């Protein structure tokens, strides 16, 4: 089994070039993130962009993403989030979707398989995995060795009510597939714009910060944005197990970060 390094970058929320979101320029943040990845993680086996690539699905935002990705040295894969728009995404990245129209992939990394799921459901903030997508996963896990699953919406509740309401809907369907195979070693999600980790049905999971804006740790009340610095995850998997690091990266538009 190879020792591998996967980078997870999430929730870019790109708007049209020059635009701002929550007080920062998401495109500048992406550029800073890619520069940091090239500086420190050009050896990564895979960089996974786990959805909410854009804030509103504008074709110009996807076009900006495509040009910035051309500078990324490591191989990468893109995923869909609830803020994305399937048609606009496909117009810019026509090879990303499978024959069934969903943006899912199984990437063989030598003893490890990164399985990327598509939880985007038009018109819904929460995530969905329909029978078609779960059926694909069922097939992908056969002979996958040690599987690492990436999906935009966490299936697990993280104790923040304003976010838990929009996690993966009907997660028991996913749990049943995972139970059937028993070879999924870790789940990785985005969507919540903050780092959380734990176990779900006995399988470890982790979420990661956004490259743009974060969620406050609010155990009650409405959702609150926080201005903690952006970060990506560095996932190391090898013979003895898996470790997940959270790594902040330098930003030209640094702040001040007002804090929480
Ligand atoms: Fe997001
Ligand atoms: Fe999201």
Question: What does it look like?
Answer:
The protein has helices at 26-40, 59-69, 86-92, 131-140, 161-164, 172-181; strands spanning 4-9, 46-49, 76-78, 105-108, 112-116, 146-151, 184-189, 196-200, 203-207, 214-215, 225-226, 231-238, 241-248. The protein contains six helices and 13 strands. It is globular and about 45 Å long. The strands form three sheets. The protein has a six-stranded mixed sheet, with no helix packed on it. It has a single domain (4-248), classed as Metallo-dependent phosphatases (Purple Acid Phosphatase, chain A, domain 2), CATH 3.60.21. The relative contact order is 0.17. The mean pLDDT is 96. By secondary structure, it is α/β, with parallel strands linked by helices. Helix 1 (26-40) packs parallel to helix 2 (59-69) and helix 2 (59-69) crosses helix 3. The site of one fe (ii) ion has 8 residues, from loops. Residues 4-194 form the Calcineurin-like phosphoesterase domain. This is Phosphodiesterase. It comes from Ancylobacter oerskovii. Keywords: Hydrolase, Iron, Metal-binding. Belongs to the cyclic nucleotide phosphodiesterase class-III family.
């Amino acid at each position: 089994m190879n020792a591998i390094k996967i980078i997870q970058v999430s929730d870019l929320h790109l708007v049209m070039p020059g635009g701002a979101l929550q007080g920062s320029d998401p495109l500048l943040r992406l550029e800073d993130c890619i520069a940091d990845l090239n500086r420190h993680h050009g050896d990564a086996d895979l960089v996974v962009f786990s959805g909410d690539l854009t804030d509103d699905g504008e074709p110009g935002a996807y076009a900006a993403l495509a040009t910035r990705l051309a500078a990324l040295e490591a191989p990468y894969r893109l995923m869909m989030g609830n803020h994305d728009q399937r048609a606009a995404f496909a117009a810019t990245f026509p090879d990303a979707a499978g024959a069934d129209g969903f943006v899912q992939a199984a990437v063989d990394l030598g003893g490890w398989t990164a399985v990327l799921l598509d939880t985007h459901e038009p018109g819904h903030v929460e995530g969905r995995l329909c029978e078609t997508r779960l059926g694909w996963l069922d097939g992908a896990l056969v002979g996958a060795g040690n599987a690492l699953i990436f999906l935009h919406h966490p299936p697990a509740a993280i104790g923040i009510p304003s976010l838990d309401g929009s996690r993966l809907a009907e997660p028991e369907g996913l749990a049943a597939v995972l139970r059937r195979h028993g070879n999924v070693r870790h789940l990785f999600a985005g969507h919540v714009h903050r780092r959380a980790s734990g176990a779900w049905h006995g399988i470890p999971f982790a979420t990661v910060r956004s490259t743009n804006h974060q969620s406050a740790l609010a155990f009650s009340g409405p959702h609150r944005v926080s201005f903690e610095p952006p970060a990506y995850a560095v996932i190391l998997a090898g013979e003895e197990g898996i470790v997940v690091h959270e790594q902040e990266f330098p930003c030209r538009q640094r702040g001040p970060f007002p804090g929480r």
